[in-house]
Amino acid sequence: MNPIFAPRRAADVSDLIDRCRLGLIVSGTGEGLAATPLPLLAKRGRDGEVTELLGHFARSNPHVAKLEKNPYARALFLGPNAAISPKWVSKPQWGPTWNYAFVDIAVEITFLPDQNDVAVRQLVSAVEGDSWNVEQLGDRYESLIDRIIAFRARVVEQNAVFKLGQDEDRKSFSEILAGLGDDPLAALMRRQAEE
To answer: What is the CATH number of the domain that holds 88?
Structure first.
């Protein structure tokens, strides 16, 4: 990875996960690869770095059995991204590119069936805030909670690429922001460009 495209702060990765929320858990065994999109919560260390992810699978998902055999996986998050058009940039011979934020975290997954309720409540709180809670499901909640299995994914290694125009001159960078308008990518580019 080109160091110019590294996130500026450790908390940038956990912030991106909070904004994306949906990650892709990918793992492999001798039986092949498996991938499952799941909403995930990032747990943070003192400096804001991601130390683990919390989520839950449907018990019926065949991916669970694969992870029970081999608990190592990747958690992938694709943040705001967009094609950057040469039409936006006044620099001669400037070509198209793609700006994006991408996080690839190697994890070791531990299933925690006794923490299903905790995992669901934490995820609901993160997504819904105070506007909704599991009690509103009434008796249905108990049948739903039995159909999932919570897990903790301990971070083994983390790679993040925030390719957000850091290699552009100031004028080109400003032109790209103008071309993006109110796209969420523009806001992320501005945050990463802050001194």
So the answer is: 2.30.110.10
* Structural domain includes residue 195: no
Kindly list the distances between the CA atom of residue 74 and the CA atoms of 6, 20, 59, 67, 165, in Å, as whole numbers in the listed order: 19, 16, 19, 11, 26
Calpha distance 162→175 (Å, rounded): 19
1 has pLDDT over 90: no
Look-up: residue for tokens 């950057």? 84
Whether 19 is covered by a domain: the verdict is yes
- Indicate whether this model's pTM tops 0.70: yes
> Concatenated DSSP letters for 142-153?
HHHHTTEEEEEE
Burial 34-46 (b: 16+ CB within 10 A, else e): bebebebbbbbee
Rounded Cα distance, 192 and 195, in Å: 8
Give the type of residue at 16: L
Residues 59-99: tens digit of each pLDDT: 999 999 999 999 999 999 999 999 999 999 999 899 999 99
- Where residue 117 falls among pLDDT bands split at 50, 70, 90? very high
Task: Report the number of distinct structural domains present in the chain.
Answer: 1
Residue 194 covered by a domain:
no
